[in-house]
């Protein structure tokens, strides 16, 4: 274990406490909390907390996660935009309608019509699949725009051009360009445009201004009334559907599928991941109604073979045009192999493979594209000895996939969990998925107002794990410290590890605490 460097700086714990206290007392933070909205994240608080950890993760890697702007003026301008966006309805407060976003895009000249698109819905795997699709399209020399959510650390991650997040300067400029039109629509509508609606409009405008050859767009929630659904995707991708956001989307896979099937448009190609039978039936019915072509995993495409490899896995995929062998994917877990199969089929469909002509895409291009894929916060290793892994699983289905992946890829002799979950999730089901593999679990919380109270989370965890296996640390930095200590108890060469999970926000903040910025 590395030691903390000696210097004359003030005590980092005191600095962290002062920043937390200052942010807690910040009038804007209090106003946002009282309004039931997410206060603007002050990453300085988290960054200060990173100094309290006994060991850092090393230099950041090229993973497409931007740091705060180095220029103080740019950083202040970006924070001002973040504050303005945060003052709107948050992503969890919704009015199921595309009326406002459609009105805004209309006066912007409908930028979403300027390029073809691949539209992605589903419950789990959307962002990883989007990043794979983007990598594949880029490898074939297409200029791409990618819109995904939520972000891991920086809001600018959500809008990417040419496989890289747009710069802070471009993010600010894009917001300022559309802001007068946003105000016009706000004045005309019953409700102001939401945080997500404004960001969606920014993405579509940035893609048109670029311009891109193709946009890869992930829905925020659902499908039919999601703000992104003002595009007519040439390819509609449906990743696995499971129970999540049941208060808004429905209480069964079938009900959820009805909402998500709204992204399937006339004459599109639907790339359908493996689904529960009732959800698949809904999708197929919708495809028939709009005369869409369907490609089903396990039928028209799929994973033929997969083997665990150093740093990821080796795959043989069956695409719409034929077989693709010796594909190295630097991501862990069977679920990522299936995401890769879906991504490949989506790109083949976009190029007309399987319908207009029967051929495979260039195998060397496919191999290089998959080898370049990254998906931050998804089975991501941020420290060694003991190994610390981050995974953004936040529902039972995601937890089961993560549990299988970490068991297969790492084979830890002892695994300690750090869990910070949102209060509106199926926390019991989530914890039950990890119970067989966690020796101990440290429950904590992230900075979001949606975070479940650590004591309430601990009460559920005790019922699942037993009191002797549960530790409570209200601060995330303390939780990471405690988990690392528990993992180290078996000795330096024991093969113990730590898995941080429960929320994208938890993972993003842990990532900063572990030195990834």
Structure characteristics:
disordered N terminus; alpha/beta; single chain; 517 residues; 8-stranded mixed β-sheet; 41% helix; 6-stranded mixed β-sheet
Describe this structure as you would to a colleague.
- The structure is a single chain.
- This protein has helices at 12-24, 27-34, 43-49, 72-86, 99-107, 126-139, 168-188, 195-209, 246-249, 253-260, 277-289, 334-350, 363-371, 396-410, 427-434, 454-465, 476-488, 504-513; strands at 117-121, 144-147, 159-161, 164-165, 214-218, 235-238, 269-272, 293-296, 302-309, 312-318, 323-329, 380-383, 387-390, 414-419, 440-443, 470-472, 496-501.
- The longest helix has 21 residues, at 168-188.
- Helix 6 packs across helix 12.
- It is built from 18 helices and 17 strands.
- With 517 residues, it is an alpha/beta fold.
- Residues 1-62 have low confidence and may be disordered.
- The protein is 41% helix and 15% strand.
- The relative contact order is 0.12.
- Helix 11 (277-289) links the parallel strand 7 and strand 8.
Q: List the strand order in the largest sheet.
A: 4-3-2-5-1-6-7-8
**Would you identify the regions where 5 or more consecutive residues have pLDDT less than 50?**
1-62
- Class based on secondary structure composition and strand pairing: alpha/beta
Main β sheet profile = 8 strands, mixed
Quaternary structure of the protein: single chain
The share of residues in extended strands comes to 15-25%
Could you tell me the radius of gyration in angstroms?
22 Å
Cα end-to-end separation? 21 Å
The number of strands is 17
If you average the pLDDT, what whole number results? Answer: 85
Tally of helical runs: 18
